[in-house]
Design brief:
Layout (H helix, E strand, L loop, with lengths): L1 H18 L2 E2 L4 E2 L16 H11 L4 H20 L12 H15 L5 H20 L26 H11 L5
Helix pairs in contact: 2-3, 2-5, 3-4, 3-5
Length: about 170
């Protein structure tokens, strides 16, 4: 009786491994990103969908490189908060905010408003691409406000201060 129960359990596991692409390490089933008439299926995991959106985006090489870099850190933070395999259609603004908070915490003092806004812009482009492909209904970044950057005022020197600096550095006025 125990052997039969064990055999049934093993048969079920082999079935999951073969037919449903079950990953026993992460305990998730891998969805096919290109199923049916969708180029990227709405039930595709967050990481797979964003990578597929990046591949299907048409933009300059520099933009793609910058977006790929932003995506790398976004994926790392998503894994840390266990949202990496969440179906893309279920990703909401609160999930994106949670991932951004994780990125800010892991980057520490390096995280600046300018960096936040650049990541926001790049990832928003990916979600716009997913909207074009009809994978998602809305862009969670659409109401995700940019951070206000603190602009440093440039020091304005008087004529006397400029002359002193020029003499101190040995630069002649040509």
């Amino acid at each position: 009786e125990r052997r039969e129960a064990t055999r049934t359990l093993l048969d079920n596991e082999f079935c999951r491994l073969r037919e449903k692409d079950f990953n026993p390490i992460t305990k998730t089933e891998v969805e096919d990103a290109y199923e049916g008439d969708y180029k990227i299926h709405p039930s595709t995991g967050l990481v797979a969908a964003l990578n597929a959106a990046l591949d299907s985006m048409t933009c300059t090489t520099a933009t793609k490189t910058d977006t790929r870099s932003s995506l790398k850190y976004f994926i790392k933070a998503a894994r840390e908060v266990h949202l990496d395999s969440k179906p893309i259609e279920e990703v909401k603004k609160r999930h994106v905010r949670l991932i951004f908070e994780q990125m800010a915490n892991s980057r520490g003092d390096e995280w600046t408003p300018a960096m936040h806004n650049r990541y926001r812009r790049n990832l928003s482009m990916l979600f716009k691409e997913l909207m074009e492909l009809e994978t998602v209904e809305s862009n969670p970044f659409s109401n995700f406000k940019p951070m206000k950057a603190i602009k440093r005022l440039r020091e304005i020197l008087t004529e006397e201060e400029r002359i002193k600096r020029r003499l101190a550095t040995g630069v002649s006025r040509s």
